Amino acid sequence: MKKKVLASLAILGIALTASIVPAEAKTSDGWIRGYDGYGDDLDDEGMLNTYTFENSNAACFWQKILWAEGAEYDNDGNKFKFGMVDGIFGPDTSQATRELNWRIRRVSSSDVTGDILYYMGNKLVQTGGSTARGKDLYLEFRGESYTFRIKRNSEGKYTFDDRYGNHVQAGYRYRTCQ
Asked: Where are any strands of DSSP class E within 21-170?
């Protein structure tokens, strides 16, 4: 009897854990990823900041958004530069994120959260391909200052060019972006 109760509790624990996981499903998946329609692809991505996925291709992808949006990285009004897109979420990226969060959401935060990514997802425009699963989709991010191309590959992973033209996947747990 005791073994049956313990087994039941274990199954219940697994079921509860499975129901909690989707909030971080994208981060645990390892990539910025989407399926079907692209409008909500960025909404449920994981947090980025100076201590969470701070050295990653996902940080590099965010830096491209900062550059495209013309975010300011200091109090003198200097804009985030294309040459600063290196995949390292350091002080300049943190300050530019804070400025963009304030400009768009009136929130003083240097964290990249689902709220700011939701807004940025509305700036994605399909330029080719298909939204069907297993097909490549071509997008542009149309920022306030610049536009850049994105490919959502057949696995749903976001890919983009880094500052040197290397095509990289927007992954959370590695940095090949330069």
From this structure: 124-129, 137-142, 147-152, 158-161, 167-169
Tally of CB atoms within 10 A around 123 = 17
> CA-CA distances (angstroms) from residue 79 to 9, 47, 55, 73, 146?
55, 23, 21, 6, 12
Number of other CB atoms surrounding residue 65 within 10 Å: 24
Judged by DSSP in three states, 20 sits in helix
Whole-model pTM: value is 0.85
Spell out the residues 6+ positions from residue 59 whose beta carbon is closer than 8 angstroms to its own.
48, 53, 87, 88, 89, 93, 175, 177
Helices (H) and strands (E) in the chain, counts: 5, 5
Structure tokens at 78: 């200097």
Q: What's the rounded Cα separation, in Å, for the pair 53 and 15?
A: 28
pLDDT digit string, tens, across residues 119-166:
999 999 999 999 999 999 999 999 999 999 999 999 999 999 999 999
